[in-house]
Amino acid sequence: MLLINNLSFFRDENLIFENLNLSLGNGQITQLRGKNGSGKTTFLKVILNLLSSKTGEIFWEGQNINKNIFNFYNQITYIADHNTSSRKLSVLDNINFWKGLSSSNLSNDETLLLLETFNLKKYLNTETMYLSSGEIKKLELLRLILEQKKIWILDEPYNHLDDSSIEILNQTFVDHTNNDGIILFASHYNPAVNDLEILEFS
Amino acid sequence: MIFIKKIFLFFKRESKLFFRNVVDLFSNILFFFLSIFIFVFALGADEQLLKSIGLGIIWSLLLLSSTLSLRKFYEEDFNSGVLVIIHMRGISYELLVFLKILSHFLFVQMPFLISIPVASLLFNLPTSEVYNLMFTFIIGSLILSCLSSMSASMNLLNKANYSIGGIVVMLFSIPVIIFSVGINEVGSDYKSLINILLGLALIFLGISPWVSAAFIKLALRNK
Amino acid sequence: MFGFLINPSKFNKFVDIILKPLIFTSSIILIAGLILVYLSPLDYQQGLTVKIMYIHVPSAWLALLTYSIMTIYSIIGIAFKMPFSFIVNKAVAPIGAVFTLLCLISGSLWGKPMWGTWWVWDARLTSVAILLLIYLIIIFLDKTFENKEVREKTTAIFILIGSVNLPIIKFSVDWWNTLHQPASVSKLSSPSIDISMLRPLLVMTIAFSLIGLIIAILRIKAEILIRKHR
Questions:
Q1: Cβ–Cβ below 8 Å for A89 and B20
Q2: Inter-chain residue contact B221 with A97, CB threshold 8 Å
Q3: Which contacts of C166-175 are long-range, i.e. CB under 8 A and separated by 24 or more positions?
Q4: Chain C neighbours, 3+ Cβ pairs < 8 A
Q5: pLDDT, averaged across chain B
Q6: Comparing C-alpha atoms, which of A32, A18, A27 is closest to residue A201?
Q7: Which among B85, B95, B96, B216 is the top mutation candidate for probing chain A, defined by the most A β-carbons within 10 Å of its own β-carbon?
Q8: What is the pLDDT of residues C66-89, one digit of tens each?
Q9: B29 close to C (CB below 8 A)
Q10: Is the pLDDT of residue C52 over 90?
Q11: C159, C76 Cβ separation under 8 angstroms
Q12: For B36, left (φ over 0), alpha (ψ -120 to 50), or beta?
């Protein structure tokens, strides 16, 4: 259960958002909706403690995240709009790096199956720089499943995806919430997902 | 245990990145040798002259050649967002900087160690000077890697003027060169100079993680 | 008639016929050359060390020959846009680099007992060292660019610019009177070197050329295969 209390954030004396409250329980998927520049990304970064000088508290499972921030981080997969894969390393190298960092228990067979579902298996040993931008984005989104974390926080996940990939991503979201996962994402694209909680930014 | 595994994983990734970009390493070494040629043509190839100043030329060029790869220290990882991910997985920014300095030392500076004997050959330096050069280079290049880390992290905040990072490295490397070259002139008292060098290395190894991490955090906040 | 020099498929056909006999002949010539070197006379001044000359001089000639071949193919490649010439450039550059390195190292080893120093900045040594750097830059240029056309053209142009170094190497011993000795073997005058030393020298040169040729052929074949595979 992720609880966000009275969160306000100032940047250079400009108020970005004020007194926001949000609670995210198991199986819940929440969208931050709003125009560009409305503060969605800032809100996500404040929740992740990547920006400081905020007022308000964030509680994960009853404990203030400031008490043990790495404990909180260890439950999260965070995917922003940039690609954390290294261009010069192969797809397999990047996957092994992500899996190892997250101490993921996903077996090699399951990984290969995952790649095949997303149509990336042929690139297993190719350097990432040879993939198209949509495929690199898909590779990045694979982190959600590879890292096996409970909380998924995403910033504009639907950018660069074609229709079939959007479908697969929606399905992945649904599967995760069925397994008591928590999803929070910011997007100006409104996906066709049931039981979507919406927080408007204006 | 898991933590140590993550550190090894990080190193494995750095080494893989290094080996995919071997051309960069060879370019650095080529730059080093080309600048030696330039120096020789500029000074005139008098053998006695070269023998007496060869040590200084080699040290200066080693310093300049290692500032060539300044840009690649943090920039790509910063832009791709991998720094944040690594941080979120339990490796603090300070530890990340420390590991980056070590891998820079191993993969960028140590290959120069092989070029030093060849360069000394070109100048016909006496063997004792070559040994001293290699030994002081091992310690001095560690200091240079720390300095490079600090200036590269400074560069993250300032996209316009890239040379400022290199300038900072050059400024602080003056004491390094003074003490490294001084060993050859002091004779039997060389141990004190080596101690000073080691002290400098430890000091910089100690402060650069904090300084660099502070700059990185600042840059991430203002991204 | 000389289509194998220009056309990849004719090259492959020609080479498939001559490769095995070529390997056989060059092994024999190499062995014959080594025997001749073993039997060749000692220099009255230098003793045994003069025999380094039988490695040093052939590798020097071959370094220059390789670069000349690359220059010719670069001109053809840029003028007639012939892809095979760029294949040859890419394949042959490392061979030239190795011969230059061999020349420099053997020269250094020869110089230490003869002149007391591993290296001296005389005109010929310096320009051969620059030749090595040019070879290395050629190899790097090939790995730097990702666009094939840019890569090949840039490398070819750089080869042409670097070919200025060849006459410098050749005539540096005449223009600047420094350590190296002037040329002893030339087409225009009878050689000033004794026949008993000339014979092993020529045989070793032929042996080196054939070995270089074999390696070049293998590399060119490999490069053709790589391009076909893409």
A1: yes
A2: no
A3: C166/C64, C166/C67, C166/C68, C166/C71, C168/C123, C168/C127, C169/C64, C169/C124, C169/C127, C169/C128, C169/C131, C170/C64, C172/C123, C172/C124, C172/C127, C173/C123, C173/C124, C175/C123
A4: B
A5: 87
A6: A32
A7: B85
A8: 999 999 999 999 998 888 999 999
A9: no
A10: no
A11: no
A12: alpha
At A106-164, the pLDDT tens digits run 888 988 998 888 888 888 888 898 899 889 999 999 999 999 999 999 999 998 888 88
Find chain C residues with C-beta within 8 A of B37's C-beta: 126, 129-130, 133
C43 strand-pairing partners: C47
For residue C136, which residues of chain B lie inside 8 Å, CB to CB? 26, 30
Structure tokens at C185: 């073997």
C132 → chain B, closest CA residue: B30
B110 and chain C in contact, CB less than 8 A: no
Residues of chain B positioned with their CB less than 8 A from the CB of A95? none
CB contact under 8 A, B2 and A103: yes
pLDDT of residue B142: 93
Q: What is the pLDDT of residues B12-28, one digit of tens each?
A: 999 999 988 888 888 88
Q: What is the DSSP secondary structure assignment for residue A201, as one 8-state letter?
A: E
Name which of B24, B57, B124, B127 to mutate to probe chain C: the one with the most chain C Cβ atoms within 10 A of its Cβ.
B124
How many domains is chain B built from? 1
Contact C39, C220 (CB under 8 A): no
Cα-flanking dihedrals φ and ψ of residue C47, to 5°?
A: 75, -135
Give me the domain span that covers residue B95: 2-221
Contact B88 A86 (CB under 8 A): no
**Measured distance CA(C53)–CA(C75) in Å, rounded:** 33
Domain residue spans in chain A? 1-75+150-202, 81-148
Which backbone phi and psi does C190 adopt, to 5 degrees?
-70, 145
Residues of chain B positioned with their CB less than 8 A from the CB of A92: none
C126, C129, C140 ranked by CB distance to B26: nearest: C140
H-assigned helices in chain B: 2-20, 22-43, 47-66, 75-80, 82-88, 93-104, 110-123, 127-157, 163-186, 190-221
Please tell me which of the candidates C108, C121, C143 has its beta carbon nearest to residue B23.
Answer: C143
Instruction: Write down the domain spans for chain C.
Output: 3-184+191-229
Q: Which of C117, C122, C144 is nearest residue B23 as measured by Cβ atoms?
A: C144
For residue A199, pLDDT over 50 is answered with: yes
Distance between CA atoms of residues A140 and A158, nearest Å:
12
What single-letter amino acid sits at B181?
V
Closest-CA distance, B175 to chain A, in angstroms, reads: 37
pTM of structure: 0.83
Contact between B61 and B103 (Cβ < 8 Å): no
CB atoms within 10 A of CB B158: 11
Percent of chain A with pLDDT over 70: 100
Would you say residue C91 has pLDDT above 70? yes
Tell me, yes or no, if B38 comes closer than 8 A to chain C by beta carbon: no
| Chain B positions in Cβ-Cβ contact with residue C140 (cut-off 8 Å) | 23, 26-27, 30
pLDDT > 90 in chain A, percent = 26
Q: Give the bridge partners for A200, in sequence order.
A: A33
Residue in B12, B17, B220 closest to A50 by CB: B220
Where is mean pLDDT largest: B40-44, C59-63, C199-203? C59-63
Architecture of the domain defined by A1-75+150-202: 3-Layer(aba) Sandwich (3.40)
Q: What is the mean pLDDT of chain C?
A: 85
Tokens of C42: 């000692």
Subunit contact B20:A78, Cβ cutoff 8 A? no
